[in-house]
Design brief:
about 425 residues, 16 helices, Leucine-rich repeat-containing protein 14, 2 domains, Leucine-rich repeat, LRR (right-handed beta-alpha superhelix), alpha/beta
């Protein structure tokens, strides 16, 4: 199959040549008996675009699986899968087809099993409608975000979640819950929320980020039947009694991931958080304390507890006003955490001028170069893993001194093996 503009020519040696104008439109008029021939020719000749177009309009219940097994090719298979996904998306836009495909005892040729369900910016009615389609036994994760549910919306949605008997992960960030100004009716809805959570007996992961839960953690988590392994409470306006409860709860000894980003750990939460870290240290793998207003003095108080987290793999301290001296101290103290693979650091406050919103190239270069002797042991101590250190700030994407600010880029490097100074990762010799 050769392409010239919108013209596609299929050449089958010793057989025939078919001229297809605007292939995507022409396929709908071809006899279906030609599809296997076209598919084989495109697959054998690695014409990936044509493969995807063929699969999009495939008229048979099965694809050419024998050919795929006999002559496997990574890029061709990727295009076949992409075509299947496109076909399914178009098919499932029909609500009746979707409902039928998700039924447990469906006789439809398309039978789906949903394990992870995620919905963004859906109305309450649409969310409930989709949840009703799902197999109560098969669903393991539900992620409802940016849906602005509020307590009244959660009261409608939660009964549909309790039917999922194997639900292990529930994520409800940005649900617009604010307990700081509760009315009498809202108190009842909050209690109902807690009661419904307690019915999720297999729950291991909970994300209530960006809900204002001040003073209500005991109410919400106190009746859960099993300990949580992941708890995300970013920007939840927590109070000291919340962290005091958490440090003594059944959840803390089992915690592997804890996210308290956006809570002010520089003031009255500092000591309760230190106690919480000490309790969670034996199991904690992932700790996020970004944008918590911590300065050098607060970080120094927490360092003994952080260093006790011997299994820690990820540490996020981005967005805290820490100096270069404070960062060097943190680097030095955490060298002993041999499992630590990814650390997200802020730009040191030394990099910021009095009237500059973003670090300057010169000051950042000097600070990075000064830290390198401390970074080197982190890279060289390990033979099978490494630590990737990300310098980041809220303005990184536009900062002229920033190097590779996107976290996803660095996460892709986290399993690499380094043999030299980390300056190479910042593009410097």
């Amino acid at each position: 199959i050769n392409q010239c503009g919108s013209t596609y020519i299929l050449e089958l040696p010793g057989t025939f040549t078919v001229l297809l104008l605007a292939l995507q439109d022409a396929l709908g008029f071809l006899p279906k008996e030609l599809y296997p021939v076209l598919f084989k020719a495109a697959f054998m000749d690695k014409r990936t675009l044509s493969l995807q177009l063929l699969v999009n309009t495939w008229p048979f219940p099965h694809c050419e699986r024998a050919l795929i097994r006999e002559k496997p090719n990574k890029y061709c298979i990727q295009m076949v899968i992409s075509g299947v996904v496109t076909y399914l998306i178009k098919l499932l836009e029909n609500r009746r087809v979707l409902k039928d495909a998700l039924q447990i005892n469906s006789y439809n040729a398309l039978r789906l099993r949903c394990r992870d369900f995620r919905a963004e910016e859906l109305s309450i009615a649409s969310t409930v409608g989709l949840l009703e389609f799902l197999d109560p036994v098969g669903v393991r994760q539900v992620d409802l975000r940016f849906n602005n549910l509020g307590l009244s919306g959660l009261r409608v949605v939660l009964p549909h979640l309790t039917k999922f008997t194997n639900l292990a992960s529930l994520k409800l960030p940005y649900s617009n819950v604010d307990v700081r100004r509760l009315t009498v009716g809202m108190e009842g809805s909050l209690q109902y929320f807690a009661n419904q959570l307690s019915r999720l007996r297999c729950l291991k992961e909970l994300n209530l980020g960006s809900s204002r839960l001040s003073g209500k953690l005991r109410l919400l988590l106190g009746d859960l039947q099993s300990p949580l392994e992941s708890l995300e409470l970013a920007f939840c306006y927590l109070l000291p009694n919340d962290l005091a409860y958490l440090s003594q709860s059944l959840h803390t000894p089992a915690l592997k991931k804890l996210d308290l980003s956006g809570n002010n750990l520089s003031d009255c939460l500092l000591q309760p958080f230190q106690g919480l870290l000490m309790e969670a240290a034996p199991t904690l793998l992932h700790l996020d304390i970004m944008e918590c207003r911590m300065m050098d003095t607060h970080l120094n108080v927490l360092l003994p507890a952080i260093c006790r987290c011997s299994r820690l793999r990820y540490l996020g301290v981005f967005g805290n006003p820490i100096s270069a001296k404070g960062l060097k101290n943190l680097l030095h103290k955490t060298v002993g955490l041999l499992d630590l693979k990814l650390v997200i650091y802020p730009y040191p406050v030394d990099c910021y001028g009095d009237d500059l919103p973003c670090p300057t190239r010169i000051s950042c270069q000097e600070t990075r170069n000064g830290a390198c002797p401390l970074l080197l042991p982190l890279a060289c101590q390990r033979s099978l893993s490494c630590t990737v250190l990300q310098w980041a700030s809220a303005d990184c994407l536009t900062c002229p001194g920033a190097s590779q600010p996107e976290r996803s880029t660095w996460e892709s490097l986290a399993d690499s093996t380094l043999s030299g100074c980390l300056c190479s990762l910042f593009g410097r010799d």
